[in-house]
């Protein structure tokens, strides 16, 4: 792949913006027929300015943090740290912002999820202490996870429509990121010592990433995720992602002929048990 992490963020945003900016403009025009003050950010975001900015900051920071992390740490670390810590961060923010109080059953479920993730990926994570820049990637994975957890909780707090939320944070992100990216890329001042290879990338690579990252993940994926947030709540929704590390490792056993170790089975059982306990328990207000 030719594109570097910040190039990928740019391409993802442009791909999503091609669809969402006209959609947002049309949606706000319809809303303003009823309420002339509806919308924000030049009439492109259907949400009020405060919701647009907060969702945009935390939802928008997830992507550059996650993409950059993969340049320093192996993908296995991302598969453990992001989905594994997401329910933990979400539970913490839900307690602080939504004032949720969890039952002992859900708290025990979260503990099992954390233990299952450590069993699956703990040995790999220990390599971060062997030197190099792996620890930077792991730290960025945690930053990405915490940002997406905050977005999840805020989306629930504002009770936003999934389509409107996706449009709002995309509008904010593209207005904030693209000009900054342009200036930093032109002056070779991108963070973490990164550079841009956008000019060297083929048209087919750019179009493919616009479709996959911008349309499929940035629009369809985010609308579906936000819909789940409104249906199940942020904690239950993000707890389901805790199965990703174990399932990914299990898939490697079947499709890549990797060895099946005891810790994989134990981690999957613990994570699955934790998810079941978590989603069948109710939060106490």
Would you write up a description of this structure?
The protein is mostly helical and 285 residues long. It has one domain. It is globular. The chain starts with a helix and ends in a 6-residue tail after the last helix. The mean pLDDT is 84.
Task: Map the helices and strands.
Blueprint: H1 5-32, H2 49-69, H3 75-97, H4 104-125, H5 134-158, H6 162-186, H7 203-232, H8 234-240, H9 244-255, H10 262-279
Short summary:
It is built from ten helices and no strands. It is 74% helix and 0% strand.
Number of domains: 1
The biggest beta sheet reads: none
Determine Rg (CA atoms, Å). Answer: 20 Å
Mean pLDDT, rounded to whole units? Answer: 84
| Proportion of residues in extended strands | under 5%
Strand tally is: 0
- General shape: globular
First-residue to last-residue Cα separation: 48 Å
Q: Uncertain spans, ≥5 residues at pLDDT below 50?
A: none
- Helix % is over 70%
